Amino acid sequence: MSHIFDALQRSEAERAGAESSLAEPSTYSVATELLQAAERKRRGASAPTIAPGVALPEDADPLEQFPALPVSILPNSRLVSVGEEESLGAEKFRFLAVRLRQLRQTRPLKKVLITSTIPQEGKSTVAANLACTLARRKQHKTLLIEGDLRRPTVAQKFGLGRVPGLSEWLRGESETMNIYRLEALGLWVLPAGSAPENPLELMQSGKLSPTMEQLTAWFDWIIIDSPPVLPLADTSIWARLADGILLVTRKGITEKQQLQRGLEALEPAKLLGALVNGSTDAAHSDYYQRYGPAASPTLPPRGSKQT
Description:
alpha/beta; Rossmann fold
């Protein structure tokens, strides 16, 4: 496996085009009217709400309903894409964003799942940096979902504090989705919220799938930071909802056997590639540069906790 991001292009099955038969003019008109009525009903039912029972106007931007929060980047957040735009790490994330856009030209790709085989491999750091990089294109609305409900760290990286998030929405404790706009970054974030007692059961309650359908209609890119693959079953739920998967590994941490098991647990058709985190070589051939004491004294040394 290369030390750079290697998109694993896979051949996709040719889509069989179904032949459509011409209907009689009168039948066609009636069918059109019925379809239009159903579409109007669907839009009304799925329209986002400002308050209970009050729908947004049809021509309104649904993302305007979500509040803005200030960003406070912590010194040990490792967000090289924010404030260290000229660094090698930030450049590599820009390269990753370009590769994803290239893949998008040949396959449907909007919801990208970031996961790892085990904890401590830096998946949340990769997810946050990638989302910030994609959000720099203002015409592309980007959402970062903190999908690790058990050990969330994404909201902490941006200094958002304790705010309601995905858990509260899935439990029915919020009238609207707990999405927040980080205006300074041009990024939207759906944090995990308070840790639930039964994350897996909550995600299987039936509300997550329609939520993702609505978010897919609103955003151009959705980056999902999920739990690791091996210890938990949560990732399998996110994987079914994602269009593509990036697997994060860490040099010196990920064992070959663990990597093999992680790859076997993922759907091959959705696997985009793998990223090697923790490289000590600063050459441009390495994908994700390790940031330790030698590179920046304000960041924690290798071996410190990160998810």
